[in-house]
């Protein structure tokens, strides 16, 4: 009887059913994914810096702008010199180019993120869900990732610009945690046969109709994370620093793989009930 109860508990099932070979494959693709994300983000950051450096050319206009402001205090009707008009047109054009380049950089960055998600994260989830990774799966996973990323960027941007700075720290941190914890549920449904928006609808339908189940699951994950962290901190007292910093990333990746599989098991069975 106890064995049957244990078999039905997802927490124990996740450890029993996640085989070592599958675990190592998922972990390998996850490591490649993080490396690719860091590389893409580094390229994006470099492009932003180049664009920002182009604004330093405005420094040569500063003395004239200061003179203009001084003169404006002395006379109500401010007259622009022909030289300043030329400079002002130059600034306006430069700002226009800057905004266009920034927009292109952001669009390219999001597109590259979607491709990285489709190629590497898609492969990771194809191993997890035991689906065949092919061209159709890659395209659907990339599109689903794009929808998912844009959705969360919109939510995050609304929080950043819609709430005062002194009050938005907790909501932003909460949204990032939710993004990381709910991603396995969403990506677990990605298939070469499912439209990305339908995939999003399935996700929200599951979360809303079976919210109690996922709240309990997230609570278990947080408790297990707290216990694991406490264990790691305790080990840190007894182990050498080099060994400890070798174990720490392994523990993080192991926890990440387990979390994905654990949530996928719950989501898969929940989907069958609806």
Describe the overall structure:
The protein is mostly helical and 274 residues long. It has 10 helices and no strands.
Question: What keyword list fits this structure?
Answer:
single chain, 274 residues, mainly alpha, 85% helix, 0% strand, globular
Distance between the termini: 28 Å
Contiguous helical run count = 10
Structural class per helix/strand content?
mainly alpha
What does the main sheet amount to? Answer: none
Got a strand count?
A: 0
Integer-rounded radius of gyration:
26 Å
Q: Can you write the helix and strand succession as a string? A: HHHHHHHHHH
- Strand content bin: under 5%
Average pLDDT number: 76
Poorly predicted regions: 73-80
| Mass-distribution shape | globular
Helix content: over 70%
In short:
With 274 residues, the protein is an all-alpha fold. Helix content is 85%, strand content 0%.
Present the secondary structure layout:
Layout (H helix, E strand, L loop, with lengths): L1 H7 L1 H8 L2 H34 L8 H13 L7 H48 L5 H28 L6 H19 L8 H14 L1 H28 L2 H33 L1
């Amino acid at each position: 009887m106890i064995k049957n109860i244990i078999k039905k508990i997802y927490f124990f099932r996740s450890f029993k059913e996640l085989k070592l070979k599958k675990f190592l494959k998922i972990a390998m693709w996850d490591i490649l994914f993080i490396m690719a994300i860091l590389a893409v983000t580094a390229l994006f950051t470099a492009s932003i810096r180049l664009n920002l450096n182009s604004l330093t050319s405005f420094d040569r206009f500063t003395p004239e702008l200061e003179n203009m402001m001084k003169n404006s205090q002395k006379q109500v009707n401010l007259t622009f010199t022909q030289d300043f008009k030329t400079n002002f047109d130059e600034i306006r054009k430069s700002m226009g180019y800057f905004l266009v380049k920034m927009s292109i950089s952001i669009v390219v960055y999001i597109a590259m993120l979607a491709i990285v998600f489709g190629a590497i994260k898609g492969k990771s989830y194809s191993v997890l869900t035991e689906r065949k990774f092919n061209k159709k799966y890659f395209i659907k996973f990339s599109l689903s990732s794009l929808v998912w990323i844009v959705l969360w960027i919109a939510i995050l941007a609304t929080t950043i610009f819609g709430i005062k700075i002194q009050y938005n720290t907790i909501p932003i941190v909460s949204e990032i945690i939710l993004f990381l914890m709910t991603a396995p549920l969403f990506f677990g449904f990605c298939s070469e046969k499912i439209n990305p928006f339908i995939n999003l609808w399935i996700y929200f339908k599951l979360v809303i109709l079976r919210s109690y189940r996922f709240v309990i699951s997230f609570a278990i994950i947080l408790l297990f994370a707290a216990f694991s962290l406490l264990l790691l901190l305790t080990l840190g007292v007894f182990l050498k620093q080099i060994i400890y910093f070798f174990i720490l990333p392994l523990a993080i990746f192991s926890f990440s793989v387990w979390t994905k599989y654990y949530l996928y098991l719950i989501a898969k069975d929940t989907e069958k009930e609806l």
